[in-house]
Amino acid sequence: MTHILIVEDEATISNLLKMALEKHGYKCDCAFDGEMGADMIENKHYDLILLDVMLPKINGFELIEYIKGFDIPVIFITAKTDITSRVKGLNLGADDYITKPFDITELQARVEAVLRRYNKTSAVLTVNDLEINTNSRIVTKNGKPVELTLKEYEILLLFVRNKNIALYREMIYENVWNEPYMGDTRTVDLHIQRLRKKLDLKDNIQSVYKVGYRFTE
Amino acid sequence: MNKIKYALCIFIAATVTCAVVFLPYLYYSSIDKRDINNYVTESYSFESKNDNITSEELISLLSSDEAIWLESNTYSMYYDGKQFNDLLDEIDSAQPLLKSAFNDNELANMAIEKFYEVASQISAYKVQEVTVNGEINGSPISVTLLDVVYSDFSENGAGEFEILMDKKTKIVYEFKCTPKEPIVQDDFIDEHDLNETVEQNLREQTCFALCDYWGIEGEHNYNVETSFYSFYFNIMPLAFTDYEFNNYNSIMYGYDKTDSGYEISEKNNYY
Amino acid sequence: MKFAWKIFFISFVIIILSFGVGGFLLINSVFTTSLNNKIQSVCDSNAYITSSLYAVVQNTSQIDNNEAYLRFTISNFSEQVNHNTSNTTVNIDSVDGNNFYDKDSFIANLQNNNRGHVIIDNGNKKYIQAVSKIILSIGDNLPYEELYYVESIADITDIYQSRDSYCRTYQIILIGVALFASILLVIFSHFITKPLVRLSEVSKEIAEGNFSKRAQTHKGAIKTKEIAELSYNFNTMAQYVEDYVEQLERAAQSRDDFVADFTHELKTPLTSVIGYADMLRSYQLDDAQRRECADFIYKEGKRLESLSLNLLNLIVLKNDEINLVSVKSDTIISETGNSVLFLLKKYNIQLTTDFEHATISAEPSLLKTLLYNLIDNACKASEKGQTIRLTGRIKDGKYLFSVIDNGTGIPQSELKKITEPFYMVDKSRARSMGGAGLGLALCNEIAKLHGSMLNIDSVYNKGTTVSFTTELCGSEEVLDCE
C-alpha cells in the first residue's frame, strides 16, 4: 500500500485529490496547512507528498526543506505557473511540479512516475495472467512472451495503470502518440483491436459508448 | 568621427592664426611691388604775377618759411658817387612812412631820426639786392628787396645800421639802429627811469605800430628789440634767418683811409 | 564635439581674427598716412621750388640772354634751397645733363610742364623722387629757352622701416595673444560649461533609470541665472518624471496584481469543476461519491458565477456613470432590511436599525447592494446570535451610513488592503463561505460613485464598523437632485 500525504489548504481540491488517488489504489491523508503537514510527516511514514505552495502558517517552499530530511519524494501542486516559481520549486528538490488546473489522469501518471523512480512501485505489473515487465518491456501471457509493437505496448501500459477508468480516445491518442488529437481517426481503435487479439483481452477491454475504452480485471 | 572633427578644428585654428600672423608680410610684399616704381605724373602751369602783388600777399611771402631768399646782386657803395646819393635817396624815401607808423612812439621816432642822421654821414655801405622767391596761389612770385648794411664798432665807426626795404612800396622789413652812443638824450633818460615796465611798454607800442605798418595780425613772427641803445625790428621769417646766417661773409663795414685814398675794409662781424 | 571645445574654437578664431585684422588695419593706416603725407609734402615742396625758380629766373635781369648767368643763378638758388631743406636733396639740372637716377626713363619721358613722382627702392633704402620739368626762358635771342629738371629726393626708408618693425612686433604680440588666449579660453570654456556638463551627466543617469538623481543648484562658481534656472527646472522635471514613473509602475503593478489574483482565484474553482467532472465521467463511482462530486461542481460553479458577476460589476462600475436620484433614507434602510432577511436567518444574526430621516442623493439599487454586502460581511464575521447594527446619521452636511458588528474584526495591518480586489484576510474562511475577496472592492467602488469612500474601523476580535457617506438633498441643493 502506498501512502500519499496531500498538503493543500483548499478543501475542495484536497478532497478531489483524495478521491482520485484513492480510486487508483493509494492511501491518502490530508493536511490543511504547513504546520499540520509537518506534524503528520513526523508521525507517519509516507511514500509521496503532494504539496501546495500557497499554504497558511508554513508555505510549501519552506516545508520542502523540512521534508528533504525524510527522503520522501515531493510533487508541488500550485496555481503559481510562473517560471521562477517552477524553477525554484525544482531547485529546492521537488521531484515534479504540476500547475492548477490539472488533469487528474495526468496527475496520477506523474505520481506513478515519481513513485517508479523511487522504486516504490514494482517494475512488473501483473494483471490476471498477464505479466508486464516495465524494465525489459517484455509482456508475457501465461509465461509466454507476446510480441507487441511499441504503440500497442504503451496502450496496454496505459490500460493497466488506469484500471476501471474510462479512457477517452483523445486521452489515449495524446498519451501514446504525443500529438494533439485531430478528431476523426480510427488509429486508436485499430491498435486496440489488434491488442485485444494478441492478448486475448476481449472481455477485459471494453468499449465505452461515445467515449473510449475501459480496462477491467 | 569625432577625432576628425577635432583635428579639423585645430587645423582651422592654426591656419587662421598663421594667416593672420603673416598677413602683413604677405600683403606688403605684394603692395610694395605695386607701389614702388609706380610713376604718377601730372601737368602744371603757372603765370607770373610779379606786377600786381597785394600787400597781404607780399607779407605772406616774406613771412613764409618756404620762400627762398637769394641774393641777386651784391655790391658795395661808398662815399662819393652819384650812385651813393641815389642810394641815400632811396633809403630816405622810407622815412615818411616809418615816421607816420611810429608817430606817438618817442623812442622809435628818436631812433629813426638818429638812423637817418647817421646814414647821411656814413661813408660806405654794403648793398644787396635780395630776391624773395616763392609761390602765391600757384603763381610764382619773385620780389626784390634792397638790403643796405653798415657795421663798424671800431673807433672811427658809427655803430651798426641796416635797412631792408621794398623799393616800390617803401616799406621797411628790417630796421636796425644801434649807434655807439645811446639813441636818446640824457634828459630823456633822466625823465624816464629805465625799468622793465617802461621797456615793456615801449616794446608793446612798437609791436602794435609794426602790425599796422605792415598790415599783419599780431601772431606773425617778427622780432622787436627796443632799448635806449638800440632799436631793431625784423619781420623774421625762418627762410630769411637762414639766408642771413649763410651770408655772413658778405658783411662789410666802413672804409679805411689810406695814403692812396679811401679803401673799403671788409671785416667779418659776428653779432 | 564637446560644447566646451566648440566655445573654445569659435572664441579663439574670433579673437585671433579680430586682433589680427584690427592690428593690421591699424598698422596699414599709420603707414599709408605717413607715406602719403610724405609724398604730398615732397611734391608740394618740389612744386614750390619749381615756381620759385621760375620766379627768380624771371626776376633776374642779368640772365637776359646770358646762359652762364642763368646757370650761376640756378646754382645759387639750388645751394640756398638745399640749406633750407634738411632731409630733402634738391637737384636742378638741365635736361641735356640728365644725370638723375632714372628708372625706366621716367624722367626722360616727362613732358614739358609736367611733373611726376615715384618711390624708388635701391635695395637698402627707399626714396621719393619728385621731378618737375620746367621751361626757363632766357631771352629773345637763341636759345630762347632752356629745359630744366627740378628734382626733390627724400629718404623715406624710415617710414618703411617703422612699418616693418611694427609688423614684427605685431606678429610677436599676436602669437603671444594666441597662446595666452588659448590657455585662458580652454580654462574659461570648460569652466563655463561645467554646469552644463554636470547637468548632462545627471540627465544621462536619469535616462538610464536612476530617477532619483538631481542636478546641483547650490554649488558651482558660475552662478549664472540661466544655468541656475535650468538646473532648477531640470530638477523639477526630473522629480515629475520620477513621480510619474512611480505612479505608472504602481499602476502597472496593481494591474498585474489584479490579473494575477484574478487568475489565481479563477484557477481553484476551475480545477475543482474540471477535476470532479472528470472523475464523474471516467471513474466508476457509487451514488454517494457521485453526489459528492456533483455537489462540489455545483458549489464551485456557483462560486465562479459570483466571482465573475462581481468582477463584471466592478469593471462596469469603474467605467460607468450612475444617475443619482433623490430618495428618502427610510426607503433605503427598510428595503435593505428586507433583502437581508434570508442572510440573517442563515447566519442566525439579529439586525437593528437606527437612522435619521433625510433625503439623500443616491443610486438606490447600487446603494442597497452596497449595504447588503456590508451586512453580509458583518454576518460572516459574527457568531451565531450576535447583533449587527445599521445606522444612518446626518453629519457635516452629509448622510453617514454605518454597519457595525461585534465579530472577528480585522487586524490593523490588513485594514489598508482589504478594499483591494481579491484581498482576503482569512483566505480559508472566506473561500469556504464562497467569497473571493471582491466584495469590499465592489462596495468601495459604489461608495466612490456616491462621492465617498469606505471607512473601516476595526479592533481584532472585538468588532468592525464600516461607514460611508452620501450627499444630502436639502432645499438648498435642488440643483443636484432631480
Task: Describe what you observe in this structure.
The complex is a heterotrimer of chains A (217), B (271) and C (482). Chain A is α/β, with parallel strands linked by helices and 217 residues long. Chain A contains 8 helices and 12 strands. Chain A has 2 domains: 115 residues, 3-Layer(aba) Sandwich (Rossmann fold), CATH 3.40.50.2300; 92 residues, Arc Repressor Mutant, subunit A (Orthogonal Bundle), CATH 1.10.10. In chain A, β8 and β9 form a beta hairpin. The radius of gyration of chain A is 19 Å and the shape is elongated. The relative contact order of chain A is 0.10. Chain B is α+β, with helices and mostly antiparallel strands and 271 residues long. In chain B, the strands form 2 sheets. Chain B has a 7-stranded antiparallel β-sheet with strand order 2-3-4-5-6-8-7, sandwiched between helices. Chain B has a two-stranded antiparallel sheet with strand order 9-10. Chain B is elongated, with a radius of gyration of 30 Å. The relative contact order of chain B is 0.15. The model of chain B has no long low-confidence stretch (mean pLDDT 75). Among the domains of chain C are: 162 residues, Beta-Lactamase; 160 residues, Histidine kinase-like ATPase, C-terminal domain (Heat Shock Protein 90, 2-Layer Sandwich). In chain C, strands 5, 6, 7, 8, 9, 10 and 11 form a 7-stranded mixed β-sheet that branches. In chain C, 33% of the residues are buried. β1 of chain B pairs antiparallel with β2 of chain C, so a sheet runs across the interface.
Short structural description:
Chain A has 217 residues and is α/β, with parallel strands linked by helices.
Provide keyphrases for this structure.
heterotrimer; A: 217 residues; alpha/beta; Rossmann fold; Arc Repressor Mutant, subunit A; 2 domains; four-stranded antiparallel β-sheet; 8 helices; 12 strands; 23% strand; C: 482 residues; alpha+beta; Beta-Lactamase; Heat Shock Protein 90; seven-stranded mixed β-sheet; 17% strand; rod-shaped; disordered C terminus
Low-pLDDT regions of chain C: 475-480
**Separation, N- and C-terminal Cα atoms of chain C:** 69 Å
CATH topology of the largest domain in chain A: Rossmann fold
Find the biggest chain interface: B-C, 55 and 60 residues
- CATH architecture field of the largest domain in chain A: 3-Layer(aba) Sandwich
Indicate the percent of residues in helices of chain C: 55-70%
Largest sheet of chain A: 5 strands, parallel
How many helical elements of chain A? Answer: 8
Q: State the secondary-structure class of chain C.
A: alpha+beta
Specify the CATH class of the domain at 3-164 in chain C: Alpha Beta
Structural class of chain A: alpha/beta
Pattern of helices and strands of chain C: HHEEEEHHHEHHEEHEEHHHEE
Radius of gyration of chain C: 57 Å
Number of helices of chain C: 11
| Biggest pleated sheet of chain C | 7 strands, mixed
Mean pLDDT of chain C: 83
Approximate helicity band of chain A = 40-55%
- Classified by CATH, the class of the largest domain in chain A is Alpha Beta
